[in-house]
Structures are given as structure tokens and as C-alpha cells.
Design a protein that fits this description.
The chain has 126 residues and is of the alpha+beta class. The protein is 42% helix and 34% strand. The chain is built from 3 helices and 6 strands. A 6-stranded antiparallel beta barrel has the order 1-2-3-6-5-4. Strand 5 and strand 6 form a beta hairpin. The longest helix is centred in the first third of the chain and has 31 residues.
Length: 126
């Protein structure tokens, strides 16, 4: 498996895990009040797959370097059509070079626009 594809799959796995964790309270609440039918679970599963497929193009992989040395890897999400990306501050912290890899394997250099180390968020642009 190519390095870009492997990195994209890692990002998608993290996104899917985050989405699943966000849905846990809903599933727990549903179990307390009523049982979920198999057909409802199938509908939920299909809906989740549709959503994941729809947002996949907006999920990106991020690699950083300090000099020639790799510094970190992470993920982000494109939130504006003009190339603005939301990621974690710790991913881009101290980086001299930031690369963004799109779902189709295209790679771009990125520039830091704004950071908030207290909330561990950063906005970068390609």
C-alpha cells in the first residue's frame, strides 16, 4: 500500500473513531429507553457509511518537518473551499515545513494562519 494511501486510511480511521465516540451517548441512551431494531441499526450503519464517503474528500493528512527531520504526522479537515484547514496545534507546533496530503494523493505546502495552543487548535491554508 502506498504511503499516501496508508496515511489517508489512518486519517479516515481516526475520523471514524471520533464519530463513533460522539455517537456513543446516543446509543447508550437508546438502549436505556428502548431496544433498537435490526432494521434501524442497518439504516444507521448505511447512513454512517454515506456520511463518511461524503466527507472523505475534506479529510487530509498533515506531515511536518523541522529542517530535514520529520517532526509529526496528523490529520485535519478542510472547512473552506479556498483551502482553509482545521487541525491540532500540537501537529504543526515548531514545524518549519507543513505538507498537506489530500485524499487523492496530491500534496501541497501549507501556511499557518492562526493557532490557539490552549485549545490545541490551528488553522492552516494551502
Amino acid at each position: 500500500m502506498g504511503r499516501h494511501l496508508k496515511l489517508r486510511n489512518t486519517c479516515m480511521g481516526r475520523w471514524a473513531l471520533g464519530a463513533a465516540v460522539c455517537m456513543l451517548p446516543l446509543a447508550a441512551r437508546a438502549q436505556v429507553h428502548e431496544r433498537i431494531s435490526r432494521s434501524d441499526l442497518k439504516t444507521l450503519q448505511d447512513s454512517f457509511a454515506d456520511i463518511a464517503e461524503g466527507v472523505m474528500p475534506s479529510v487530509v493528512a498533515i506531515r511536518t518537518k523541522l529542517g530535514m527531520r520529520p517532526l509529526s504526522q496528523g490529520s485535519g479537515v478542510i472547512f473552506r473551499s479556498n483551502g482553509y484547514i482545521l487541525t491540532n496545534y500540537h501537529v504543526i507546533e515548531d514545524a518549519e515545513r507543513i505538507s498537506v496530503i489530500l485524499h487523492n494523493g496530491l500534496e501541497f505546502d501549507a501556511t499557518v494562519m492562526q493557532v490557539d495552543d490552549r485549545s490545541d487548535l490551528a488553522v492552516i491554508t494551502i
